[in-house]
Amino acid sequence: MINSMSLDAAEDFMRRAEEYMVVARVSFERSFYNAAAVNAEIAAQLSIKALLIKLGIEPPRTHNIRSLLGLVANQLGGVMLARRLGHS
After folding, report:
1. pLDDT per residue over 27-57, tens digit each?
2. At what angle do helices 65-84 and 33-54 cross, to 10 degrees?
């Protein structure tokens, strides 16, 4: 069960992700491509962590997008398997 503190944390991650995306867009528009890429990557990490919280998983302290996406895939894969087996 997700508590209100977790939802607050997810909202905070999303707010921060949106801020990084604004910086990424401005950087890209000014042809600062490295800065745009770094800020977009941080936004992606924060967005995935918000999703993990909403899925009931405490996000690990990592910046590895592949690891974060793996956690999402494992969680969603388990949900889909349960539905196929008629458990949900």
Report:
1. 999 999 999 999 999 999 999 999 999 999 9
2. 30
Other CB atoms closer than 10 Å to residue 82's CB: what's the count? 11
User: How many angstroms separate the Cα of 78 from the Cα of each of 33, 48, 58, 60, 61?
Assistant: 38, 18, 17, 19, 23
Query: Beta-carbon neighbour count of residue 64 at 10 Å?
Result: 10
Per the structure block, which two tokens stand in for 45? 């990490």
Nearest to 50 by CA among 22, 31, 42: 42
The token pair that represents 29 in the structure block: 């528009």
